[in-house]
Predict the structure.
Amino acid sequence: MDGTRAPSRRFASPLIQRAYDTSTSVSAGMPTRPPQTPGPRAAAPPLQVPPPTTSSGSEDIRSLLRRATFGFSVPSYLEALNMGYDAWLEWQLDWQNVDDAVLQGRLASYSSLGLTNPELLDRFPDPAAGLTLQLGEARMERMVYTRRQLYERMVEFWTDHFNINQLDELCQWFKTSDDRDVIRRHALGTFPEILKASAHSPAMIWYLDNYTNVAGAPNENYARELQELHTLGADGPFDEFDVAEVARCFTGWTVHGSGSNQGRPGNFFFDPTLHDYGQKTVLGVTIPAGGGKSDGDFVLDLLAMHPATAEFVSRKLARYLLSYDPPSSVVADVAQVFLSTGGDIKAMVRHLLQPGTVASVPPNRRPKLKRPLHLAASLMRAVLVDVQFPFFLLDEIDQMGHRPFYWPTPDGYPDDLESWGNSMLARWTFVTRFMGRDITGTQPDVDQINNLLGSAPAGSSTPQAIDWMLTGGALGPKVHAEVQRYMNSLNMNGVVLREAVALAAVSPGYQFY
């Protein structure tokens, strides 16, 4: 994607014109807090810790939670322990039947989340006045408070896979519906479904310039990223000829209001007057002349179930859930699940999170470093913080370089150690500020922390109880000793307790998973 835009454009729709003119004048920096941003939340109820009914399989369950959630929490652990590994995993995969009423109550004040693109264009003439903030704040709240943790993990995966920079002009309006109708609707559906939904998304069409893709002057941005990032992979079996032919197939795939077409501005529209009706050849397959919109639909079907797509998506998913360098045998097995189930995402995730598959990752594989959003969510989940003003929390995430929906290029936020391992100071600063109660509206409660520490196994020292609260006991004796040494040097009080938790949370055992 070259990212270039004409300095001035004229649109048929007055709403699109107004939105475009506004978008070109809005700063790309983080917007200031608008009055429409939801205010403080009601206080969270105190933790009620259910007693475990069994201790068998506890290490397997801790390993599962590290991969399937945004961080260990005592309530989630005890819930999974009581249900058992397989039952908890199936419960999470059946995400629509997981009661998420608490989260839904927290999201109720975000007025934009359920609106269509035309409604968003009409009700938010200036996207900086609340719209872009609402989506980012809602993402943070969802990661922390949802009981549908595995589903939300997959939402994050597909958000990066089909990345759209929210600050890219009309994407300030269109990304909200893309998040809802593409990513969230299909996060645990099938790959062909989510691929097709993305191809029809006004946000994707705008972001990758397909609204300018017309017969006689094709724009290849979407065609290239469709093959390189969404399906076949950069090393896939396509070349420049295939890129050009795929671009021809998608001529006329546009958005209402972006040309002479009529209809509600902001919705997907196939404009037959802009389509190239000639014969085309993609990956050696001939597409007869005269097909119209079906040319693009055919390409999506061809790419969605291509063996190269199965391998590329399976490797990326295994990397996300298991290891930076997943065993080739695991990738091959998941790719076979992909092909045999029609790209069933649940089936692939189920296979990856089976105890045997997790155990097949050798212990010498590098552990994964929590990306900044993951780190922040995991710490908030561990201490059960009640976020009052997510806006200020997003500012902290921005300092670590991982603000939701802000990655500028189509490849999405990176999932590798090299990209995040050189920013440890920012991570330590976040942990220190968070536990120091220095982030407005996101302040850990000492009584809640003491309640959690009290649920630790009988006979636990304070450092061991802190480890229990943060990881279920994975940090080990060296971290315990350091925390104890720190506490011994000071008179114990609420401030020292919070600082002891921060010391444990900056240790490698907590930063990695």
User: Anything to note?
Assistant: The first helix runs from residue 14 to 23. Residues 306-359 form one domain.
